[in-house]
Amino acid sequence: MKKSNFPIVETIVIAIGEIIASAITCLIFLIAGGWEIHYSVFTGSALGIVIMLANFLVLAISTNIAIDRAMEERGNKEFTDEEAEEFAAKHKAKIALISRASFFLRAASMVAALVVAFLIKDGNGDDVFNVIATLVPLLAFYPIVFVSQMLIQRREKNG
């Protein structure tokens, strides 16, 4: 993958969004718990954030690698419209296949995170990871992407 294709800004935006969503979750737990909060809420939030950021990076890297391979094969050739359509159709399927495989891996990692959060207990029998706090960052990903894209479009529209 080329350095110029690495989604640094997008990763930072998603990380900030995940941290904000998790902070709101921790605040809700704090208020609901009478200003006491169990450490599992923080560890659950951290687990969810790490899994979502890893998932995003796997998606971005695998897609960029597939696109880079297609572009290497293309080279600097000049194509007719028909050749360009054929080339795009051929490589679109490869990129989609890689994205689907990446999706399966990412979905499995989210399920695994929830299973880990549910099953692992400390020495006292308490949860190490709060399942709800783990779930929030996993569910917050798409709204974060949606809101960030809306803000980018608004900024571009307003100049």
Structural account:
By secondary structure, the chain is mostly helical. The chain has one domain (8-158). The chain has helices at residues 8-32, 39-74, 81-119, 131-158. The mean pLDDT is 87.
List the helices and strands and how they pair.
Layout lengths: L7 H25 L6 H36 L6 H39 L11 H28 L1
Domains (count): 1
Strand fraction band? under 5%
Main beta sheet = none
On the 0 to 100 scale, the average pLDDT is 87
Helix content: over 70%
Number of strands: 0
Shape: elongated
Rg of Cα set: 20 Å
Poorly predicted parts: none
Give the class from helix and strand content and strand pairing: mainly alpha
Order of helices and strands: HHHH
How large is the count of helical segments?
4
**Termini gap:** 31 Å
What key attributes describe this structure?
159 residues; mainly alpha; 81% helix
What's the gist of this structure?
The protein is mostly helical and 159 residues long. The chain contains four helices and no strands. Helix 1 (8-32) packs antiparallel against helix 2, helix 2 runs antiparallel to helix 3 (81-119) and helix 2 crosses helix 4.
